[in-house]
Amino acid sequence: MVEFQTVKSEEIKFGKNNFLEIARKKAIADEGENEFMAISRGFFLPDGTKRFKKSLAIPDQQEIKDFVSAKIKEL
Predict the structure, then answer these.
(1) What's the CATH code of the domain at 7?
(2) Cα(22)–Cα(10) distance, rounded to whole angstroms?
(3) Under 8 Å between Cβ of 57 and 35
(4) For every one of its 75 residues, what pLDDT tens digit does the chain have, with 9 covering 90 and above?
(5) How big, in percent rounded to 5, are the helix, strand and coil portions of the chain?
(6) Distance (Å, whole) CA 21 – CA 52
(7) DSSP letters of 6-45?
(8) Could you give the number of structural domains in the chain?
(9) CA distance to 6, 8, 22, 29, 31, per residue, from 1 (Å)
(10) Which of 27, 45, 54, 62 lies deepest, with the highest CB count within 10 Å?
């Protein structure tokens, strides 16, 4: 079984009811731990509860984080 923990997260709201979250997460299993970055898109229910629609996991490697950051800024 794998347990996921959010180490740190930041979010920005956009549109009428949507948000984008960037988080550092940790997957913990009997075999060990693995940290990664997750970019998730979601929306808020009428009671304020978050619902996630889509997510992308990125390895916690500086080269990959630099690539993603640079390409987002270029586009």
Answers:
(1) 3.10.450
(2) 6
(3) no
(4) 899 999 999 999 999 999 999 999 999 999 999 999 999 999 999 999 999 999 999 999 999 999 999 999 999
(5) 15, 65, 20
(6) 9
(7) EEEEEEEEETTTEEEEEEEEEEEETTEEEEEEEEEEEEE-
(8) 1
(9) 17, 22, 24, 6, 10
(10) 27
